[in-house]
Amino acid sequence: MSEPQRPLSPETARDALAQLLVRTAQGDHQAFSDFYDQTSARVFGLVRRVLIDRELSEDVTQEVFIMVWQKSSQYSPIAGSPMAWLMTIAHRRAVDRVRSQHRSKIRDRRWAGYTENTANEEVSETVINKMDAQTLHQSLGCLSPLQREAIVLAYLGCLTYREVAEQLSTPLPTIKSRIKDGLTRLRTELEPA
């Protein structure tokens, strides 16, 4: 008869997770799988508390573990335990998603307000809006084609940055950088001299 397994001490569990991260950084799929099995429930729990929505929480949890696979070499035991590192990534990712959804809703409301035509709209307002749109359209010419495409999809196409990245088959950080640089350039172009 075998003895029942005793739970690992916190130090032993921390060391085991750190070793799994080291092996994951070396491309060890089994180590990554083991790391996932041991930590995914806690990550999902944290993400779910932030996002509430189950399906969205599942998506963000998956994104977190993709980041772990890609960035496991950046883990440093000096900075903290593997779980602290992982939960920081998970929390940041969940908060980013909340912010992204909030910005998307604001864009949707702005776009709806911009495109909504009311019967009692004043002629002068229409002319001013058309002049603003024309100025914006002309200002888009100062952007590179890549910046213009990303900005138009995000702000006029009402897509999230992630959706823009998927549509253009381009990494999300690249899309974010293009949009940020493009918006900075637009701001400079549109500001009165």
Written description of the protein model:
The protein folds into 2 domains: 11-100, RNA polymerase sigma factor, region 2, helix turn helix motif (Rna Polymerase Sigma Factor, Chain: A); 123-190, Winged helix-like DNA-binding domain superfamily/Winged helix DNA-binding domain (Arc Repressor Mutant, subunit A), CATH 1.10.10.10. Helix 2 (29-51) crosses helix 4 (82-115), helix 3 packs across helix 4 and helix 6 packs across helix 8 (172-190). By secondary structure, the protein is mostly helical. The longest helix has 34 residues, at 82-115. It contains 8 helices and no strands. The radius of gyration is 23 Å and the shape is elongated.
List keywords for this structure.
mainly alpha; Rna Polymerase Sigma Factor, Chain: A; Arc Repressor Mutant, subunit A
The CATH H-level homologous superfamily of the largest domain:
RNA polymerase sigma factor, region 2, helix turn helix motif
Instruction: Note the run of SSEs as H and E.
Output: HHHHHHHH
Q: How many strands, which pairing sense, and closed or not: the largest β-sheet? A: none
Tell me the count of domains.
2
Query: What integer is the average pLDDT?
Result: 80
Number of DSSP strand runs: 0
Strand percent estimate: under 5%
CATH class of the largest domain: Mainly Alpha
The total count of helices amounts to: 8
Unreliable spans:
115-121
Query: Would you give the CATH topology of the largest domain?
Result: Rna Polymerase Sigma Factor, Chain: A
Radius of gyration: 23 Å
- Would you tell me the structural class of the helices and strands? mainly alpha
C-alpha termini separation: 85 Å
Tell me the helix content.
over 70%
